[in-house]
């Protein structure tokens, strides 16, 4: 019902059936009245999708004439005039009176006014029969029917214009066809088949044939891959106002790879392209680059590499970086002086060194090289895995 309080109108909470759908308004809803006279229409539709729970959606609108329709998403909408408001703001209830069975009984009897079997039109005064019939259309027992009347064996439906029992049968056939496509589930069955709007778990494949799959909101949105135990395998995300799209290896670590909004790309470690490596400190190394080289035995995992290093002209310990990082450890390093004459340091009253390296057991990206001033140029080779 639509009560009026001053200039305010409100649709009160309640339950009704429109187009075969159970429509429940859980709380009263105020209406904004723009102009009168007008009608208040209730619009009911059953909406949902393959990954959500189907539910009845109720909306209200104002206007003089509305009909049932199908929206752009393919959902059928059933409309019904709930009330009429005249120029003075008075509300007239347009809901049918009586119970559903009483309404059906009233619709099940038609006036037989013509020998041709036609039914009188709505609004016409029924003709009286010779038995003193008063023209009332209330239900009667078949054995007590007045002359000039008949009782429908099947429900007949009242429409504007002339009515025929064939129309009623056609409608019954339509209802039977509709019922063959309806399935009724208990609450527990529904919970197992459909997802609530608040989210849930899909156990099968999800195929989206639309053009967009959106994660909407101003907070951080993750596209994640998780292992069966719930541990994180990978994250893909971008913060609102952030520096760019970020890719993260989850629990495996390694930092974030950033596709920056300025067009740059950031990697937390070295970049590899085919046989070349761009080190995080700026050097570019390839499989062969001048005197420098490397090779990996993919069957055994061993990494061989080497090159020429020219150190400072002094007794010193210097760091030689590897071209390719050894993830486990460095196994072996060998050194060879470029010019043998460098070894005669005593003729210049300088200390003569045997080339040396420090402990390799915990080395992954290089090693320390000890040399004298005259032994500053050396070929080296390292093996690791």
Task: Provide a concise account of the structure shown.
This is Gp37_C domain-containing protein. Residues 113-130, 172-182 have a biased composition (Basic and acidic residues). The protein has 385 residues and is mainly β.
Give a description of the structure:
The strands form eight sheets. Strands 6, 7, 8, 9 and 10 form a five-stranded antiparallel sheet that branches. The radius of gyration is 44 Å and the shape is rod-shaped. β15 and β16 form a beta hairpin. Among the domains are: 90 residues, no CATH class; 51 residues; 108 residues, Immunoglobulin-like (Sandwich), CATH 2.60.40.3940. It is mainly beta and 385 residues long. The protein is built from three helices and 28 strands.
CATH topology of the domain at 277-384: Immunoglobulin-like
Care to count the β-strands? 28
Instruction: Tell me which CATH architecture of the domain at 277-384 applies here.
Output: Sandwich
Note poorly predicted spans.
110-166
Number of helices: 3
Calculate Rg over CA atoms: 44 Å
- What fraction of residues sit in β-strands? 35-45%
Structural class: mainly beta
End-to-end distance? 81 Å
Largest sheet: 5 strands, antiparallel
Portion of residues within helices: under 10%
Provide the CATH top-level class of the domain at 277-384.
Mainly Beta
Please, what is the average pLDDT?
A: 76
Bulk shape: rod-shaped
